[in-house]
Amino acid sequence: MRKLKKLLSIAMSVGMIAASAVATMPANTVSATSITFKQGDANGDGSVSVADLSAITQYLNGSGATAQQITRMDAVQNKVIEMQDYNKVLDVNLGLATAQTVTADVYTNINNETRTYCKHAYGENVPLTSYEEYTISTPSNSSTYALPRATFTHFAQDTENLNTVELVDSNGNAYGSGFIVGEHVIATAAHCVYDKTNNRFAEKFTINAYGSSTVQPTATYEPVEVHIPKLFYVNSTSFMDNYDYALIYVEEDLSNHGIWSLGCMTTEFMETGAVINTSGFTTINNVHTRYYSSGNIKDYSDMTSKDHNRIALRFESDACVNGGQSGGPAYYEVTYNNTTIKTVLGVLTGGAETDDTCFSWATRITPTLLRFYLDNPEF
């Protein structure tokens, strides 16, 4: 069950860079709120090198970073830290692209905190109220990982996102969605695996994976464990949405269905009106299948129910979500060098659709969640 962590390597005359390569940052070159830097120069040493590749891989596996580092990492300048930043910095190191010097305001830092989780292991005669607690701390540094080089609509059938999966209860009823983020790990919403009304974990359910056609599943899996944040478990209904995320661990290897890329939006990204997409399983006009929708991200000043939608932890968009899509991905498409990557920025937790409007809520992917999904010490 141990997750393999491969060392970052690149066919260059530069050696392996230690994990602490991004620990020290120079002072701002302009002011307290803006800096001048080369795009992708994460460690601020004046050049874009393999050390910056190491910084991005660490960050996208949950190491966290300073606000200046996040600003410098954004090599494609879209206010999101994701795989295309890695790809551009890789191209600069290979001599295939040039890092431009820019001046930009420093981004607001992204949530990165120690959290405690509740793990329930399914088994014969194991009460649904039982769990073990564990804590994932904010690291002072991180290991070095490999990141492979990757490649407004109301509901439409989704034939592409085969790594979005369906959750089915013990009576055979589809009730939620999830998305594959590791060889054995599925991300979903906490309310899909934990019943707050009865204060217990969900009865054992199954997970269906489909191909481009969703008539019959191509594979069905059973959960070994489910994990939720303790803050979801202990908080009141009005506040728990800020921690509405979970993981499902399965024994089988899920990688043949595809693994979603994860990224972190900045608060400033919420001001751009960029297009957010949703994916998940629901029923529209009596047809139950995987659907997607597209809409614009809302400015954080327009977010509703502030107590239930803390800006540092949540976001809202005009993309549609319907019953059964909770736990699915809210993702953003980024194109660089004629290659488009779909990057998950949040876990869908709710929303609605009318004839004229849609909205959806999601829990933001942050370094805190990246560690939970990608560098969890429990597996």
How would you describe this protein?
It is built from 6 helices and 23 strands. It is mainly beta and 379 residues long. It is globular and about 60 Å long. It starts with 33 loop residues before the first strand and ends in a 5-residue tail after the last helix. Mean pLDDT is 86; it is low at 1-32 and 142-153.
Short descriptors:
eight-stranded mixed beta sheet; 2 domains; globular; mainly beta; Type 1 dockerin domain; 12% helix; single chain; 379 residues
The CATH superfamily of the largest domain bears the name Trypsin-like serine proteases
Kindly identify the CATH topology of the largest domain. Thrombin, subunit H
Specify the number of helices: 6
CATH class of the largest domain: Mainly Beta
Beta-strand percent range: 25-35%
- How widely separated are the two ends? 6 Å
What structural category arises from helix and sheet content?
mainly beta
Count every beta strand, where a strand is a DSSP E run of 2 or more residues: 23
Quaternary structure annotation: single chain
Number of domain units: 2
Average pLDDT, all residues: 86
What integer value in Å does the Rg equal?
20 Å
Large-scale geometry: globular
Q: Identify the strand order in the major beta sheet.
A: 5-4-14-15-9-8-7-12-13
Query: Helix coverage percent of residues?
Result: 10-25%
